[in-house]
Design brief:
2 copies of one chain form a homodimer.
Chain A lengths: L1 H24 L3 E6 L5 E4 L1 H6 L4 H4 L4 H4 E3 L5 H10 L6 E5 L5 E11 L2 E10 L12
Antiparallel strand pairs in A: 1-2, 1-6, 3-4, 4-5, 5-6
């Protein structure tokens, strides 16, 4: 049983490591947000840079405190509805630090019983490949 | 103990899920290869498409059987040396299926005691952002 536990732990660590390596290897900007509490629980350096934050400042922070929606209503709620819609579109936000306009492309999924949003972050000026984003 | 085990299992599943969601959400093409046996253990749809394979065909397959190096020598060995060099450069390969020339950008890391290569795959014609890839 001890060996089995160690093996489980190693497998878990391996997934954790792969996840972190992939987060930093991709040149796109990504954040993971818990729908239940609205907090960012993972963000890569690319996302932190676009939000004008340090990566360690982002973790466990409310999404609402790093950016605000340009439209009306609750940001996490809007992202959730977009992610669940048939043809999701980007949600425009402004970085709380310096007002930079950014677009969030949401995907929703369930992990360990909690609904999670994966947000791809793009600057407004970056137009490449926006069309094929949410297919 | 049972509850703790279930919790561990849930945490592991959560990482696994996040990893898989991220693999498919990124618009870049990625493969994970075990250095010890040279097999691809994860590839996203983008990587499979560039290799002219189905994604399920890639898993547990030898990297050597889906692509061949354009230069001399052993492919996994070459990727490993590049990943460990101070200024890594891309390794050119040809897809085994149709000879398409592709570039592999390697990163090396250790997970669960096994050395692993993360390969970002780019078509030769795609020149955007190649310079800042391996910083």
């Amino acid at each position: 049983a001890q060996l089995a536990l160690e093996k489980d732990f190693e497998t878990q660590r391996a997934y954790d490591t792969r996840f972190r390596v992939l987060m930093e290897a991709t040149r796109e900007a990504f954040m993971f947000v818990s729908v239940s509490n609205g907090r960012i629980f993972e963000a890569n350096t690319g996302a932190a840079t676009l939000m004008s934050c340090r990566r360690d400042e982002m973790t466990e922070t409310l999404l609402d405190s790093v950016c605000r929606p340009r439209g009306k209503g609750d940001l996490v709620g809007t992202l959730k509805s977009e992610a669940q819609s048939e043809a999701p579109s980007a949600v425009e936000v402004e970085s709380a630090k310096d007002g930079t306009v950014l677009r969030l492309f949401p995907t929703i999924f369930r992990a360990a019983g909690d609904r999670t949003l994966l947000l791809r972050v793009e600057p407004m000026t970056d137009t490449r490949g926006t069309q094929d984003t949410l297919t």
